[in-house]
C-alpha cells in the first residue's frame, strides 16, 4: 500500500489580538530542547510561520491522529512564548513579514524583491510514495487536470492584509508569483523531467532544483511525488480528506499508466484557467471539469473526482470515509466559507483569527 505524508505550514499569532508573531526561531529552539532528535518542526521563509511534517503512514486514521498531534505539539511549544498556532493559509489581519535569517532566504529576497515579501502564505503538501521515477513522472502527467479540484476543496485564504479578496484561495494567487510555480507541460519520461528542471536552473532565474515549484513534482528528498496545490486546511479532518484523495489519484494515475492509457493532453493555458477558477470560487460556484475543461457546479466536479478514484479508494479501504468526509465538506464548506461565516457573525477579523486558533486544534 502506498504511504502518504503531509507537510503543514501554520501561522504563529497572538491569541488575543490575532496579529501574526515572528517567534518561529524561539519556538523551534524550544521544540528542539524538549524533544531532541525529533525533526518534526522546521523553519520557513518568515518568522511568523512554523512547518511540521508527519511520518509516512498507510492508514488514514493514523495520519489524521498524527496531524492532530503535531498541531497540538506546535500549539504547546508556541504557548510557552505567549502565542498560538492557526491553520490559516493567509493572515486575515495586516502583517509585515519578518524574513528568517538564512543565506537561501536572503538570496530569494534580493533576487525577487517585493515578490518575496508577499509570500507569507501557508500551504499543505502531500507526499505519496511511488515505485520509481518512471512511475512518478507518469503519475505527474496524469494528475495535472485534477489538481485544481484539490485546490478548491482546500481553499482557506479569503482575506489578505485586512480585506476580503473575493477569492476562496488567495494564497494560490500569491504563490503563482514565483517564476517557476504552477502547472506543467507533459514530461513523458524521467529524463525529460530532469532535463527541463536542469534547463530552468541553467537560466539563473531560479536558484536550484528545489526551486522548481511545480504544482506537483518528484520530491527532491524522498521516493515520492509531492502535490503542492492545497492551502493549509483549517480543520485536520479536511487535511486527511485531501491526503486520502491525493493518494487515490496517484494510485489511479499509476494504474492508467500501466494499462497504457495516455495522459490527458490539456494545455498549460487551460490548466492555468482551471487553477484560477478554483482559487476564485472554491466550492461556491463553478469549477472547470478536468475531463472537458468546461464549467460545472463545484459539487458535481468534486463528485467526479470521487468517481474517478473510486476503485483505488475501495482497494485502499478509504471509499466510505472519503465519501462521507466529502459530503460533509460540501455541506459545511471549506475554510474559506468558515472564515467568511465567522466574519459575518462577529464583524471582526481579530475574532476570525482567534476562532480559527480553536478550529486548528479542534
TrEMBL record:
Q: What is its EC number?
A: 6.3.2.2
- Source species, domain of life: Bacteria
Q: Which PANTHER family match?
A: GLUTAMATE--CYSTEINE LIGASE 2-RELATED (PTHR36510:SF1)
SUPFAM superfamilies, sorted: Glutamine synthetase/guanido kinase
Keyword terms, alphabetized: ATP-binding, Ligase, Nucleotide-binding
Q: Which family does it belong to?
A: Belongs to the glutamate--cysteine ligase type 2 family. YbdK subfamily.
> What does it catalyze?
L-cysteine + L-glutamate + ATP = gamma-L-glutamyl-L-cysteine + ADP + phosphate + H(+)
- Read off the Pfam families from this record: GCS2 (PF04107)
What lineage is on file? Bacteria, Bacillati, Actinomycetota, Actinomycetes, Kitasatosporales
Q: What is this protein called?
A: Putative glutamate--cysteine ligase 2
Q: Which GO terms describe its molecular function?
A: ATP binding; glutamate-cysteine ligase activity
Q: What task does this protein carry out?
A: ATP-dependent carboxylate-amine ligase which exhibits weak glutamate--cysteine ligase activity.
Any one GO BP annotation for this protein: modified amino acid biosynthetic process
Amino acid at each position: 500500500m502506498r504511504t502518504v505524508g503531509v507537510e503543514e505550514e501554520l501561522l504563529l499569532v497572538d491569541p488575543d489580538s490575532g496579529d501574526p508573531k515572528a517567534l518561529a526561531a524561539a519556538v523551534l529552539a524550544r521544540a528542539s530542547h524538549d524533544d531532541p532528535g525529533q525533526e518534526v518542526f522546521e523553519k520557513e521563509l518568515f518568522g511568523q510561520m512554523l512547518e511540521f511534517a508527519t511520518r509516512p503512514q498507510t492508514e488514514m486514521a493514523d495520519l489524521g491522529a498524527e496531524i492532530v498531534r503535531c498541531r497540538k505539539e506546535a500549539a504547546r511549544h508556541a504557548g510557552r512564548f505567549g502565542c498560538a498556532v492557526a491553520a490559516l493559509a493567509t493572515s486575515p489581519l495586516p502583517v509585515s513579514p519578518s524574513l528568517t535569517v538564512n543565506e537561501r532566504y536572503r538570496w530569494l529576497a534580493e533576487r525577487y524583491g517585493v515578490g518575496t515579501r508577499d509570500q507569507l502564505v501557508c500551504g499543505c503538501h502531500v507526499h505519496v510514495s511511488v515505485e520509481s521515477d518512471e512511475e512518478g513522472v507518469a503519475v505527474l502527467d496524469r494528475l495535472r487536470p485534477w489538481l485544481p479540484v484539490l485546490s478548491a476543496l482546500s481553499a482557506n485564504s479569503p482575506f489578505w492584509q485586512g480585506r476580503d479578496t473575493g477569492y476562496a484561495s488567495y494564497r494560490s494567487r500569491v504563490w503563482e508569483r514565483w517564476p517557476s510555480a504552477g502547472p506543467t507541460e507533459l514530461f513523458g519520461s524521467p529524463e525529460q523531467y530532469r532535463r527541463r528542471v536542469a534547463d530552468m536552473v541553467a537560466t539563473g532565474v531560479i536558484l536550484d532544483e528545489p526551486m522548481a515549484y511545480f504544482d506537483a513534482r518528484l520530491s527532491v528528498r524522498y521516493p515520492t511525488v509531492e502535490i503542492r496545490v492545497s492551502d493549509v486546511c483549517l480543520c485536520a479532518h479536511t487535511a486527511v480528506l485531501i491526503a486520502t484523495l491525493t493518494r487515490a489519484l496517484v494510485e489511479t494515475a499509476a494504474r492508467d499508466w500501466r494499462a497504457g492509457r495516455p495522459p490527458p493532453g490539456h494545455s498549460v493555458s487551460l490548466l492555468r484557467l482551471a487553477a484560477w477558477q478554483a482559487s476564485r470560487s472554491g466550492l461556491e460556484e463553478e469549477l472547470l471539469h478536468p475531463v472537458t475543461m468546461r464549467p460545472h457546479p463545484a459539487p458535481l466536479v468534486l463528485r467526479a473526482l470521487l468517481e474517478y478514484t473510486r476503485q483505488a479508494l475501495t482497494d485502499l479501504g478509504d471509499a466510505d470515509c472519503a465519501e462521507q468526509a466529502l459530503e460533509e465538506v460540501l455541506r459545511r464548506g471549506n475554510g474559506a466559507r468558515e472564515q467568511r461565516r465567522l466574519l459575518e457573525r462577529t464583524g471582526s477579523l481579530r475574532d476570525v483569527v482567534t476562532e480559527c486558533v480553536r478550529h486548528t486544534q479542534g
